[in-house]
Structure formats: C-alpha cells, structure tokens
Amino acid sequence: MRMVLSVLIAVMAHGVQADTLFATKTLRARHVLTAEDVLLKSETIAGAASDPESVIGAELLRSVYAGRPILLDNLAQPTLVDRNEVVRAVFTLNGLTIETEARALQRGRLGDVINAMNLTSRKSIRAEVLANGELKVLP
Asked: Which interval of the chain is the signal sequence (predicted)?
C-alpha cells in the first residue's frame, strides 16, 4: 500500500501526459470528421478527445480552428436528414405498410423524432429518423 501511495504522489507531482486530438485545419460547424481532419499530439487538455477512431464520422456542433483541440462536448452523431430534404417515409401498422415521400421540416440524427410534411396529402407528420436516412412515421 505504501508503494502504491508513493507512486501515486510521484505521478501527481510530475503530471501524466495523455494524447489529445487537434484540428489540422479550420473545420466548420456540421462538418463530419475524417482522419485527415485530426492530429494526435502528446498533450493533456481536459474535455478533449483522445481517440481518433471514436471521433471519425462524428459531426461538429461548432467550428474548430486549425491547431485547436477537438472537444468532446462539440461532437454529435452525424445528421442523416437535413431540413427541407425530401425523404422516403414509411408507416406500418398491423401488417399494413404505406410508403410515401415527405419533406423534412427539421434536421435529424439517428433516433431523433422530427416533424415532416407528407408530400402527397400535405399533412404534417411526426417521424423517427432511421439509420438509412428514411423516416418511420409514428402513429
């Protein structure tokens, strides 16, 4: 126990370096990160991402300037449906399936419930965003 305590005190006194991801260029909000967008440096910054594999494919919520750290709070799942995009909407109930086109009235990520307009009836619908970018109309 005494040895563990002395090692812990030594580590705290000298600090521990962790890897941190930095932007290689200025990245705009809504940009989906790729491997070319990030650079791993041996620095410790609280709240910053440290694993490239966990951030590649994530979407930025706010812009990040070149050389600045990529913060975890600034990352989200990528948007699958953009506002005003025409997408396929599917309604299923008791074995009956109806497919139509709808215009998304909001942006949506996987699992988000958004408002859309059925282009055939011009009625407003609520729908869940699916992984393939389609909408599952809610009853």
From this structure: 1-18
